[in-house]
Amino acid sequence: MSSLSQLEPRHVKSSSNTQDDVVYEYIFDAILEQRLAPGTKLSEEALGEIFGVSRTIIRRALLRLSHEQVVSIRPNRGAVVASPSVDEARQIFAARRVVELAVIELAVKNITPQSLARIRAMVQAEQDAFDRGDIGSGIRLSGEFHLELANIANNMPLLNFQRSVVSQTSLIIAQYEVGHQAQCSCNEHEALLLAIESGDPARAMAMMKKHLDHIEDKLNLDNESASTDLHVVFSDVVKKQPPTRRD
């Protein structure tokens, strides 16, 4: 069993954070890194043993995550990692476009040399993670890049909403991405940095829209799921073949 006081999740910045905060941040990180797959059952008992805390603390952390819509709490059945439907995925991306464009417009206006250096270091750390094959850390750093932009925007409601849509997007990518090419985001993050550095909000917003379009383009959201029925999988072949005699 872990001692919660010894754990240092990446997002926790202050020693004044509660046990609820620590558990919340660890689960949030796991979702951001796509280590928790959509539909994973989140047992209060198992999590309590892992973190060495009461089920009450676990329950509060899960409730907070459910408010951000990355965890679903089912009456009498417990909590699971959310599994967005295709329609929900499209709605989440639509919402993310709205918030990201507002965030980057404010970020351009509020950027300082210090904050620019900070996010540039994050992009480099993201690239380094993918280069060494640490896909989970690369994905998390990709999400943290967008969260840091919201932090630079200096608008708390936008930051809170950004946390929700970024983590929900991570679930959608885990569920629907074709090809698993998350590392492609590094070049686009670098382009976003250059757009922000230029001080031109319109340029930065156009680059952000292009970036989000590329993310969504890699998803299979056409409502056609794979099948285990061979007749369905090879239906086009069957249609092209002439009837054959069976002796």
Automatic annotation (TrEMBL):
Record's keyword annotation contains Zinc-finger: no
PROSITE patterns: HTH_GNTR
InterPro entries: GntR_C, TF_FadR/GntR_C, Tscrpt_reg_HTH_GntR, WH-like_DNA-bd_sf, WH_DNA-bd_sf
MF annotations from Gene Ontology: DNA binding; DNA-binding transcription factor activity
Lineage: superkingdom: Bacteria
Keyword annotations from UniProtKB, A to Z: DNA-binding, Transcription, Transcription regulation
Keyword Nucleus: no
Residue ranges that the Swiss-Prot or TrEMBL entry lists as coiled coil: none
Domain HTH gntR-type stretches: 17-84
Record-linked Pfam families: FCD, GntR
Protein name (Swiss-Prot/TrEMBL): GntR family transcriptional regulator
Native source species: Oceanisphaera profunda
